[in-house]
Amino acid sequence: MHEKYGEVVRIGPNTVAFSNPEAIPTVYTARTGFPKSAFYATLQAYAPKGGNLQAIFNTQDDDMHKRLKTPIAPLFTPANVPSFEGRVDEVLECLREKLDEKFIENSEVFNLGQWLQFFAFDVMGTLTFSKRYGFLETGKDVGGMLGTIVDFMRSSAPLTQIPWLDWALRKNRIGDAFQRRFGVQASLGILGFVGRAIREKQGTMSNGENKDTGDKYGRGKDFLTRYIELQQNDPEVPPWAVTAWTFSNVIAGSDSVGSLMRTTMFNLLVYPHTLEKLYDELRSANLSHPFPKYSEVRNLPYLDACVQEGIRMHPPFALPFERVVPKGGVTILEHYLPAGTAVGGSPYVVNRHKGMFGEDAEFWRPERWLEKDEMHKKKLEQAMLTFGAGRRICLGRHVGILEIKKLIPFLILNYDIRIVDPEKFELENSWFFFQRGLYARIQKRPKAAGNQS
Ligand code: HEM
User: Which residue ranges does UniProt annotate as crossing the membrane (predicted)?
Assistant: First the structure.
């Protein structure tokens, strides 16, 4: 639509999308006053007693956002994120065991994409609850949780465009009773899971059995322990905040990370010269074996370029991130929009803006991140919308990047991976940008030289 009608396109009765990253600072401001639209209310879970469950990600209310975000923001800073590294290693160990056990000997073709998703979910389970969900152990969607999240996103996607219909169907007692009766409200399954995990943890914490002191294994405390402690130590924080925070981890922080891992692996595999270049960089960096440390890989230039390019190419959330134009209206890209208009950019579109990213913006080319100076790289980073922008930018992005920068070097250094049929890789954008069918074969590489950890 943007190719046909220009950089600002009216895509609904009251909704406008933009394609040029120049509009980002105007729409996604650092201050309050440009709130999220009703799009986000459709992503809130509903309970007949409490009404809509506001989470940091989907609340439209600036004050509520501040109340929810301020207490936990320090957990997500770049300085604090490495405290979660030990837990990621724990899950990498499990992935290694399963890959070696199942797929090496007979060169079996397997769904690497699905295993990356299992990995991302088991990492978030471990970071949040100190427990893997068991996806890697079983090689299956245990308890149907992955399917439930897919259903949640897929059923929400059309409703994000018609918020009143969401209200009529799901956000009232009658609609809710119907959904419960027929088991079609996917968010309930996730809420149920989160509720059980919280009760379990509160139980072990109150009778002194919670072993998650965070130091015995050299690992930081899990998120849930930290959330409960924060809530207990601050009377201003409502008790339901723990559920809201935990729900955000599960919904916002698992599939999204898995999706970026898949994008990066897929493109490395279909552009083998970039894979070779990355392999060379990793080999000459003398990394710890078998799990490189975050401090060793965090600033490797080509790895970083590949991760940024993955973030650019396939944003896991891919509809315009809608905001409501405040009183007085606003002008973006020379178009005046009156107050009350919903306006947003889709990261898929904005991240491919040729003026910003180059004529070959449709293609995978990590080199674009390295060809000019640091300032230019920063400018490109700020021109992407994958994590959103401004005051509502993704809180967990440093956690996600840590996971990705741990996983990719581990896979590439330890395995020779071949994609089987790139044509089988399929995409479906239902608000969440799903991928299916990354089939591969792997072999173990001869043991890489490096530091044994
Ligand atoms: C690495 C992959 C990830 C991607 C691509 C991603 C993407 C996003 C996007 C697009 C937004 C909101 C933008 C908007 O609506 O304007 C967001 C917000 C958020 N994300 Fe992430 N996310 C990722 C990982 C995570 C992780 C690992 C966590 C938690 C552990 C997390 C927690 C959150 C939270 C709490 C918010 C709400 C922030 C706010 O409104 O202030 N995300 N994320």
Answer: none
What is the rounded distance in angstroms from the CA atom of residue 407 to the CA atom of residue 70?
30
CB atoms within 10 A of CB 29: 17
Q: Which of 394, 432, 435 to mutate to test the pocket of ligand 1 (most atoms within 8 A of CB)?
A: 394
Q: How many residues does the chain have?
A: 453
Q: Does the structure show a pLDDT above 70 at 106? A: yes
Minimum CA distance residue for ligand 1 atom 17? 394
The interface predicted TM-score (ipTM) is: 0.99
pLDDT at res. 216: 47
Q: For residue 244, which amino acid is it?
A: A
Is pLDDT of 52 > 60? yes
- Maximal CA-CA distance, the chain: 66
Per-residue model confidence as pLDDT tens digits over 287-310: 999 999 999 999 999 999 999 999
Indicate if ligand 1 lies below 6 Å from the C-beta of 248. yes
Tell me the two tokens of residue 444.
Answer: 């173990």
Residue nearest to atom 27 of ligand 1 (CA): 253
Q: Which of 57, 194, 323, 433 to mutate to test the pocket of ligand 1 (most atoms within 8 A of CB)?
A: 57
Ligand 1, atom 6: nearest CA belongs to which residue? 387
List CB contacts of 169: < 8 A, sequence separation 6 or more.
159, 175, 179
More reliable by pLDDT, 199 or 419: 419
In angstroms, rounded to a whole number, what is the distance separating the alpha carbons of residues 56 and 60?
9
Q: Is 344 in the pocket of ligand 1 (CB under 6 A)?
A: no
What integer pLDDT is reported at residue 192 of this predicted model?
A: 76
Cα 57 to averaged position of ligand 1 atoms, centre (Å): 7
Per-residue pLDDT averaged across 444-450, rounded?
72
The contacts of residue 267 (CB under 8 Å, 6+ apart) are 274, 306, 309, 310, 313, 364
